[in-house]
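Lab meeting, action items carried over

1. Structure of the two-component assembly. Owner: GW. Status: complete.
Input record:
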Amino acid sequence: MILPKDIADDFKTDRKEITPPLPAILRLVPILFYLTVVSTIILCGLFLYQLKLANDSILTAQSGLAESQAQVAAAASERKTLEAQILRATDVQGWVEGSRPLQPLVVAVTRSIGEEASLADLKLDRDEESPSSLKLAMRIGTSSPSQLEATTDAISRENFRLLQPEQTLAEGQINYRATIVPLSVTTPEPAETP
Amino acid sequence: MNNKHIAVIIIGLLAFVFLQGILWVRGERDKTISKAQALQAEEATQRQLVAVQTAQLAQLKQSSADLISFLNAWEAPLSRVRTPENAEALFITKIRDGNLSSLSQKFGRVALKAGSSLSGAVRAQLTFEDDYASLLNWLGRLESELPTLRVNSVKISKGTRPQDIRMEATLDQPLYTP
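Predicted assembly:
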């Protein structure tokens, strides 16, 4: 039935233009999107947790490393100090061992001279390279070999060994030269100085 | 291209951005883990170094204990003479105390071996002429009272008077700065 236009209004609006539907495969896009969102939340959470653990490990390692480096530096410093002390101690030991008293040796030599002999002179020089060794030079007014033997025995009793002895006899005088080295290796002790 | 296409593209782009975000976070995690592992390895090496150095130091301490105690024992007597003036004054005092007939006294500075931790020594070249007992007793006392003194050379010969002997001695006193 056709109504005249002046009797009733047509309430039906004009039909809008409908866009054609997307291909079926593209319906997966929203599903993939939701999956991506969920994955992002889960994986990022997991990775961030692991990142935090790694950062904690870095902090711990850095702290441990700093501590170790400090220990290495302290040990190196202590070693340097100790080495300097050892060097100093070695020098001091060398000096002290090359400073053993000579007076007992001089007394032993002079006392060994018998009544029929005389000591014209006696010289003891320390060796520059090895100060514990001494160069002995003496002139004894005698022609008796037993006197020289007594003197060398006296030197031996003072814990010295005679090396490279040279002796000449001329005009009733024995010229004697030798290098003497200490036999004992005991470490000297410092005496109390008044 | 209609609005549905645009929506799909936007959703696809967002998904791509999220995926990139995941990859970026994973990359950061991997980098940090690598850094942590490198630091842990370095720390382990450093700890080994500490252990080695500590062991070496302990060994050195043990092997040098006698030497160090020797140094400690001798530092006090050595430290009494630090300057050439100290040494000369000491020599003069000892000569005066000996009450000996002195013919000459000469003092000078001598250098010790290169690299020595002793800074040098003062050398006294002395000549005396007195009786045997006085001279040798004085020398004995001197060596006993000054244990760090080195009698570098001594020469004994006859003196001008029959009862006297002549003694020429070279004495070195080290200068020590602790």
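2. GW to write a short summary for the group page. Key points so far: The first helix of chain A runs from residue 28 to 97. The first strand of chain A starts at residue 118 and ends at 126.
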